[in-house]
Amino acid sequence: MASKNNHFVLPDSTPRSSKLTINIAGFHVHLYGVQELSAQQREDTTVLFHIHGRTRTYKDAEPVAHQLLYGMRERGDFNRGLVVATFDNRNHGDRTVSSYA
Questions:
Q1: What angle do CA 31, 36, 41 make, to 5 degrees?
Q2: What is the pTM of this model?
Q3: Which are the contacts of 56, defined by CB distance < 8 A and separation ≥ 6?
Q4: What secondary structure letter does DSSP report for 95?
């Protein structure tokens, strides 16, 4: 589902996954779905990096992460875990240095 400005709009009925923010090399990486992993899934987990588009921030990628993880959980029991990672690209969001760049 998209709004007038082509942002994905997460339905209110979609449960939100857990969010864990870690610092890697001086910038924040946001991990979704870590707390939902079973002990078995923690041993074999895929990390999907979902990066926002031009002029956007990680917050624009966040609804897609929630919807993707919800869809995977609805499909059934998986042996492998899935975590979605997002971050602000250089000079976007929290990493903005110049609005002219």
A1: 95
A2: 0.78
A3: 92, 93
A4: G
- Return the amino acid letter for 39: A
Q: Tens digits of per-residue pLDDT, 21-40?
A: 998 887 888 999 999 999 99
Give the per-residue pLDDT at 92: 47
Distances (CA, A) of 25 to 20, 29, 67, 86: 16, 10, 28, 15
Element at 71 (helix H, strand E): helix 58-75
Q: Are 68 and 32 in contact (CB under 8 A)?
A: no
Sign of CA dihedral 51, 7, 95, 97: positive
Torsional sign, CA 33, 80, 50, 9: negative
Closest listed residue to residue 32, CA positions, set 44, 40, 21, 23: 21
